[in-house]
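testing teh design pipeline on a random one, pls ignore if ur not involved
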């Protein structure tokens, strides 16, 4: 019962969160984007501009080899600076997408200078002293004392967005997820490998095998238990986001030759029975989720349609006929947007709107 109340609190904050987006224009902030030259960093700048985030001063931060180069934001040219200079500038918020090692070294330095860090790497996600946040679900856990905030894994975000209202209503027992992940999740090197293979060009390999016309059951590095890090993120992060260890997640993560957008086949067993029409209604009314579920018209989520969008798309809803209280579903989202940049910016918006920075 305690868990159900917790989730109701989380999900009922969504209308207020959506409304408050309209008042950010009245506030001004000094913002640092760390890793501004990377794939996610570039999308972060795009999202900040699209959402009209209240930026008074923008600091674009990257590695020493990029210092002095120029990037354009809202038709204005900015010079890239180094991490030490960014810390000295004491931004209100630093949005990180520069890799785990950089986050481990530099996020505490920003925090010590009074900056609130929203980190997109895996460095802090399972740290018990740090919050792991999907704004539509658990942003109300944040306080002014939270100086380093973790952004979940891209595959986790889209899965929990779809599962949150269902967990509230029926209480999950076990989730089995298989992912079909874009090469963009690996980075620009992997995107170039796929492009080279399509063009018949030999080039640098991001993967141990060709990715074109292939599927690699190998996302991130293998661990001693036989799972990859990506699979263990999917297993552990939802429990932390929901503040609930009573359900379990088993994952298999696969890389496929798509340029953008992650897909997931999710099988979820609930403690309580459900009605498919109720689930469709629930998902269609969940902010940030778009229901695409009509097999008569071949309407279902696909990465090609999720590209450059912030919503999480859900479809192929059907009962698992092999056991009771179990649902099959298909979830798709743009991994560089809601799976990374957009979720990070939404966290920053929540901080500003609620005077937490």
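output:
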């Amino acid at each position: 019962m305690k868990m159900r109340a917790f989730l109701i609190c989380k999900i009922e904050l969504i209308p207020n969160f959506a409304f408050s987006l309209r008042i950010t224009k009245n506030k001004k902030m000094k913002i640092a984007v760390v890793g501004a030259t990377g794939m996610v960093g570039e999308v972060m700048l795009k999202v900040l501009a699209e959402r009209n985030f209240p930026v008074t001063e923008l600091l674009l931060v990257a590695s020493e080899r990029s210092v002095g180069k120029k990037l354009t934001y809202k038709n204005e040219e900015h010079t890239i600076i180094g991490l030490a200079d960014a810390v000295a500038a004491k931004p209100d918020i630093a949005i990180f997408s520069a890799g785990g090692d950089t986050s481990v070294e530099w996020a505490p330095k920003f925090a010590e200078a009074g900056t609130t860090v929203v980190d997109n790497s895996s460095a802090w996600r399972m740290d018990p002293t740090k919050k792991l946040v999907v704004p539509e679900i658990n942003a109300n856990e944040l306080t002014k004392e939270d100086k380093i905030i973790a952004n979940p894994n891209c595959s986790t975000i889209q899965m929990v967005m779809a599962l949150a209202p269902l967990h509230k209503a029926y209480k999950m027992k076990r989730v089995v997820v298989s992912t079909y992940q874009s090469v963009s999740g690996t980075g620009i090197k992997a995107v170039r490998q796929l492009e080279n293979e399509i063009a018949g060009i030999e080039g640098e390999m991001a993967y141990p095998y060709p990715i074109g016309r292939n599927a690699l059951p190998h996302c991130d590095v293998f661990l001693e238990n036989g799972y990859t890090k990506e699979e263990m993120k999917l297993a552990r992060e939802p429990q932390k986001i929901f503040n609930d260890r009573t359900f379990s997640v088993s994952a298999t993560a696969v890389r496929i030759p798509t340029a953008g957008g992650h897909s997931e086949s999710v099988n979820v067993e609930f403690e309580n029975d459900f009605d498919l029409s109720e689930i469709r209604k629930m998902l269609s009314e969940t902010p940030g989720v778009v229901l695409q579920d009509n097999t008569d018209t071949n309407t279902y989520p696909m990465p090609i349609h999720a590209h450059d969008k912030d919503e999480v798309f859900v479809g192929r809803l059907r009962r698992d006929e092999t056991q009771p209280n179990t649902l099959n579903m298909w979830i798709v989202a743009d991994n560089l947007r809601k799976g990374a940049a957009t979720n990070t910016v939404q966290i920053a918006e929540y901080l500003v709107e609620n005077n937490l920075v």
